[in-house]
Amino acid sequence: MISDHLAMQRFLYLSFVSLGLIFILMLIGTYVDASHQGLSCPSWPLCPNGFGFPPKKYFFEEIHRIVAVITASTVFATAAYASRRSRFLRKSTVAATLIVAVQILLGMFVVYTRLEPLLVATHLSTGVLLFGTALITFLSAYRATLMPTQNT
CA 34, 39, 42 angle in degrees (round to 5)? Predict the structure, then answer.
């Protein structure tokens, strides 16, 4: 369990980075949707240019997908860190990883169904749920840094 205050501060930083990336990802996704660029890149997971720099036609959709990979990796890293160090924070981070996995699958289905409105709405709602879960994780970690004896 986290007995080291420095370890809890690292977790606090990692959970804040996850929260910030989720927020940025939601902003980019909202822009992609509002600008009707959701199908500018009709294949999944990569656009036709693969790992190359995205052309203007695919730019925002591909940036959304790249930021999604970085964000998911950060959420998974946060959960891995918490699962080894703290029972107190394990539940919310594991919930976040499950929500990220569902979110990735929903994103795939949104592309494959050519923006089915119900799936798009579910994808957005799941993103809000993920943000809320990450916020709870961050606030719990912050509270634990203030009261280091109660974070086990």
Answer: 160
